[in-house]
Amino acid sequence: MKHTLLPLGALAAGFGLSLSAFAQAPAPTPSADRALPTVKAKATKEEEGKDGVQATETRIGKGKQDLRDIPQSISVVTEKLIDDRNLDTLKEALKQTAGISFLAAEGGEEDIRLRGFPLQATGDVFVDGMRDPAFYERDAFNYERLEVLRGSASMLFGRGSTGGAVNQVNKQPRLIDRHAIDVTVGSHGHVRAIGDFNVRLDENSAARIGTMATEADNNGAGSSISKAGIAASWRTGIGERHEFQVSLYHLDNHNGMNYGMPFIRPNASSPVGDTTLLPVDPTAYYGLASDRNHGSASTLTLQHTLRLGPNSELVTKVRKGEYERDQRAGTVRFAAAASQPDRQTVTLATLTPNSLINRGTQLKMQDMDNVLAQSDYSGSFQLAGLKHSVQAGVDMAQEKKWVYGARSAAQGGVVPTKPQTRFGTPDDGANVDESVRVLRLANAYFSKGWGAYAQDLIQVAPALKLLVGARYDSLQGDYETYAIPNNAAGPVTTTAYRMKIGDWSYRAGLLFQPSAQWSFHLGSATSFNTSGDAYSLSAANVDIPPEKAINVEAGAKWDSEDGRFSVRTAVFRSTKLHERNTDPLLSIVTLSGKRHVAGFELELAGRLTPQWEVFGSYSWLPVAKIDVSSATGGELQGQRPSLTPEHSGSLWTTYQLTPDVRVGGGLNARSGMQPIRNPGYYAKGWVTGELMAEYRHSHALKFKANLSNVTNKLYADALYPGHYIPGAGRLFQLTGSYVF
Questions:
Q1: The pTM is what?
Q2: 522 Cβ contact partners less than 8 Å away, ≥ 6 residues apart
Q3: Whole-angstrom Cα distance, residue 700 to residue 693?
Q4: pLDDT tens by residue, 519-578
Q5: φ/ψ of residue 338, rounded to 5
Q6: Whole-number Å distance between alpha carbons of 716 and 728
Q7: How many alpha carbons lie under 13 Å from residue 189 in its C-beta half-sphere?
Q8: Exposure string (b/e) for 608-626, b if CB count within 10 Å is 16 or more?
Q9: What digits encode the pLDDT tens for the residues 609-638?
Q10: Contact, 114 vs 100, CB < 8 A?
Q11: Could you tell me which of 507, 537, 504, 502 has the C-alpha nearest to residue 521?
């Protein structure tokens, strides 16, 4: 299950690209050189997100744009907010933006929901604008910012979900000499060290290396942590006509895994609606010490920026990525009544320290390789008396995925017997030898796709802008399953499926900007996601057309006169027009389904005074409904969809008491929501609080203390039909930061 990064020339050749054109292009003659315009990059707000929680620019739209010029809601989690709240992972960073919920199932990050719609399962998480698979638990050590585009995003990114897209923006080399080391110690043996080293090599070149190592006995929710990462970049021609960048990234996870805790009812006759959580500390762990969630991600990225003029550039990127997952987890369930000491079904009324717990087996072993290439143009010019801001581009992707299964004993494998445990003895240290399992290739998926898009933001009047855009995508996916008999190691039966689609996505918007402070927008965008969005096909879905969705939104953005504070608000309706459902009569997947969600969002970010800084994000989804469904169980027509909380939000504020002392605090909240395929039961809502205090000893050295989940609130952070993953309990962390 190990692979080696291919030579860059080989991966480029796979797309018919010639990277050598960059390196071997003849130098221009003196006369030709004089004919070329001297192009310098505009001054950028590189410190905007490092020194504050407010952002005014984004690249999630495939080119640098002001947030006020995008007729769609965008949330930005800046580096400052990530540092203030000690957000170590993508999931923790996403919780700072409203409308996020999680499915407890896979252990990787296929389980993110935005506005109730699956996000990562449809490939809507990106790194620097390029698609990033869901095979690993992403760490935030190299984040410059996290951008969340809300609503349909296929016009920019291709196939995707109804909820939106998430872009992880990595740190880049800068023309300064600056180094920083952060060391954090905290509850449950938590130790985390991050290094960020930026070196200016000459007047237009720089290199940057980021490192991370983290160890902890418990993450506050039952999982141990052991991971390390490195990100290295070299950048030359910074601000010049031709700019090149080479980036390497590697993350290695050897984490434990709490697959989830079972729900429980007050007593045997209690209705489903009374289902609740186990009365146990969230750090309690009932899995085996040998359970694990191992994985790695390795990427090599080449980037070339061609500046064609002061307001025009062409950015071309090629990335080779290799990803591995080796997940050996276990479902935790109370044993049947006949096996319990009192011969009763376990409920709150019968729960004792001697209640027996079984440990099941959940294996997920996968490899994935991909090669991505894209070229994006952005530029502004005058045409026919009107100002046009154009973005256009093409992208190509080749993805390969292999899934492995374990042979049963009858098939010549070895199946370790997992011992039971008792409710009163969590963390018992029991383990099995996972290395004895005999693995085989279960299925494989190979796809090639390409897309092309163009959009134009037209200044039709001094205060009025019109946006129109379209994109076409083509994708072919080949999926093969490899089955063996139930009682023998062979022969292998191969079944092949093929998906081939081509589809359009559209975007349109109107912006009214009566002043530099105000921007009002009305926009609409479509999206589609394929039947193979999770890299698997079957006889049931191979011929099913893509799901369709549309997002309609009206909103406003206001910036204070001094530019230090922003408010964003929007009302929206997101509709999945054709949702896959299983026909109970024919046992086939159909596109008969339809559901929608409508709501209101409010975000604010920036400084109310020079000392007082605030970030807040709130989502209200009063309307969420399954309009059409052929399902006869689980989520039914007319019901509210699962994992769609009516209220969710986050608030963070800090105040500079003295030049050397800063204090802060915040809240995270979510109302109740229904687990997937578990009608009639809503996991209760929750509110958690956190505190922060920072002391700056000198310009170079500071210390920061964080206390999260101050009241040690017990709550379900992620949900599945039969179990939940608890939110982290109370955690204390102390960070020392040294800059030189």
A1: 0.91
A2: 71, 509, 510, 553, 554
A3: 17
A4: 999 999 999 988 766 677 888 888 888 889 999 999 999 999 999 999 999 999 999 988
A5: -65, -20
A6: 9
A7: 9
A8: eeeeebbbbbbbbbeebbb
A9: 999 999 999 999 999 999 998 887 778 899
A10: yes
A11: 507
